[in-house]
Amino acid sequence: MDMQVVPEPGLSFSWLYRQVQQYNEQSIYPKASRLERWALGTGVAATAAGLTAGMLPVSVLPLSWALMALTACLAIEVSGFTLFLFLMLKREGGQYLRPRLSHAAEMDANFAYWTHLVKQLSAFPAAEREERLRFVLALQKTMTDRMGLMYGGLQKLGPFPVLVALYLQFRTWTPGDWAGGFDVNPVLGLLIFSMVLLYALGWVLVGMRTRLDVYSALLDASLKDAPATSP
Q1: Rounded CA gap, 56 and 54, in Å?
Q2: Helix ranges restricted to H, the chain
Q3: Cβ atoms 101, 210 nearer than 8 A
């Protein structure tokens, strides 16, 4: 990695985004493969297709066709999510077996690039960095207030909303009743879809809020005498 500090014509959040994006990509763990991403997408698509087919009236989708479609969607959903979980555990299993050692190794790998980013920022005028730091801190407060009204402590809930959605979907399912996983009425199907959609959008906002935290930590570290502090 080239550690040479090359100042830009002017500090911008677009430039800072590109630098932080490279920082986030510095990982000692292997990235998700195309097959793993495809398996997750297939499971989600099959779930949506099954819920949609289950809500269609018999006049639109005959019962015999609906049974075949729901069975196929359920099989694809289970297969996709099972393959995704298997590949994810295979890829990330090492860090869970030795969490403290893996975390320390990850911090060592990221430390050099973190200090490199702080040095790059230090090449810009302090007034520009202070102005952007104030702006980021204001955005942090605004986003925290708005997310609190809509989601509350989403990080504390973890996967609980998804588990509730799965319970609603499979609450009447019995072994051998493959179509029963999508035996939901339109109101319940809309509720399940809304829960999953809001959960996904919530984590997108959490990611944006985390990125603001990194921006503020970098800008603050570059304004101090000892800029080697990790976020």
Answers
A1: 6
A2: 13-24, 34-55, 63-97, 99-122, 126-150, 154-157, 160-170, 186-222
A3: no
CA dist., res. 95 & res. 85, Å (int): 15
pLDDT digits (tens, 9 = 90+) for 147-163: 655 555 555 555 566 66
- pTM value is 0.56
State mean pLDDT over 28-47. Answer: 82
The DSSP line for 145-210 is HHHHHHTSSHHHHTTHHHHHHHHHHHTT--TT-GGGGG---HHHHHHHHHHHHHHHHHHHHHHHHH
Contacts of 148 (CB under 8 A, 6+ apart): none
User: Can you tell me the distance from the alpha carbon of 53 to that of 77, in angstroms, rounded to the nearest whole number?
Assistant: 14
124-133 pLDDT tens trace: 888 889 999 9
| Residues 213-225 pLDDT 10s | 888 989 999 888 5
Contact call for residues 148 and 47 (beta carbons, < 8 A): no
Contact 53, 182 (CB under 8 A): yes
